[in-house]
Design brief:
alpha/beta, 2 domains
């Protein structure tokens, strides 16, 4: 800009110097050659002025363009760039979050298997607890030895007071608790572990409180049959035990002869003495029918 101003000033000075010269030429009536010179000078000065004005306008236009237009363009470009970068950042973040979520949520095959096993175990435990705390056959109480334990295992929901290997002494020890029972079918099944103690059993049963017998359906179940080369010979002593027990029942006590029914209809054992589940369920069914519950299915 400073250089152009200098050029403009120089030309202006030159023009001021030429004007007096031109006036002298005109006043003196210079010849045609001088007229040509005058015309050349005027033309040169005019062109010089037009050129100066054109360059000045171009410079001012260029200055305005540089000061006004680029500012808006720069702002728009900056905003566009910022929005583009923001969208790219959000897209990248979303993809990363989705990928991380998939990794976190998606369980491994081992985790699925472990979860299924845990669920199955929990269901089984819950079922057993319900069976133990809420007996299905609430009107029955079985009291006995390992034969009663096997019956309780085979028929879910039975209430029992029993012990493997129990003899007459065990019966005496639980009698005070059992005789507190009211309004139930109470079934005693002892003798297979001590067949020679028939007289002691008769004494214990005859000592049952009258109030207990009156307020319950008290039943003595026969000692049931055995089989096999090792235990098959026990049946003779079992028959003697059952015969004497039936002949000496306390007043108001009933006798359930499941022994004769099993011998007639068949039975199956695991070891010659203890029964398989199907036979235990058969004994339970015979008991329900004997007590008048013909539709009960163990």
């Amino acid at each position: 800009m400073k250089e152009m101003e200098k050029k403009y000033n120089n030309r202006l000075i030159l023009l001021m110097l030429l004007i007096p010269v031109m006036a002298v030429f005109i006043a003196a009536g210079c010849q045609s050659k001088n007229k040509d010179l005058y015309q050349f000078v005027v033309t040169s000065v005019t062109k010089s002025e037009e050129s100066t004005e054109s360059e000045t306008a171009a410079v001012e236009s260029s200055s305005e363009s540089e000061s006004a237009v680029p500012a808006e363009t720069t702002e728009e470009t900056t905003e566009a760039t910022t929005e583009s970068e923001t969208e790219e950042t959000e897209a990248t973040t979303t993809k990363a979050e989705k990928a991380e979520t998939k990794k976190t949520v998606k369980p491994t095959p081992k985790a699925k298997t472990a979860a299924k096993k845990t669920t199955k175990k929990t269901v089984k435990k819950t079922t057993r607890k319900k069976a133990a705390t809420k007996p299905k056959y609430t009107q029955y109480l079985f009291v006995g030895d390992s034969m009663t334990v096997g019956l309780d295992d085979a028929v879910s929901g039975i209430s029992s007071v029993a012990k493997v290997g129990a003899k007459v002494d065990y019966l005496k020890s639980v009698l005070s608790t059992v005789t507190k029972t009211r309004k139930k079918n109470v079934i005693f099944n002892f003798g297979v572990n001590d067949l020679g103690n028939i007289n002691k059993y008769i004494t214990v049963f005859k000592s049952l409180p009258k109030d207990f017998i009156k307020n319950n359906n008290v039943i003595i179940m026969s000692v049931n049959p055995t089989n096999g080369s090792k235990y098959g010979s026990w049946n003779k002593d079992i028959d003697k035990f059952n015969k004497k027990m039936k002949a000496n029942l306390p007043s108001g006590v009933k006798y359930l002869d499941t022994n004769s029914i099993l011998k007639r209809e068949g039975f199956s054992t695991r070891d010659g003495v203890h029964y398989k589940a199907v036979t235990y369920r058969r004994i339970a069914k015979l008991t329900f029918v004997f007590c008048g519950d013909k539709n009960k299915k163990p």
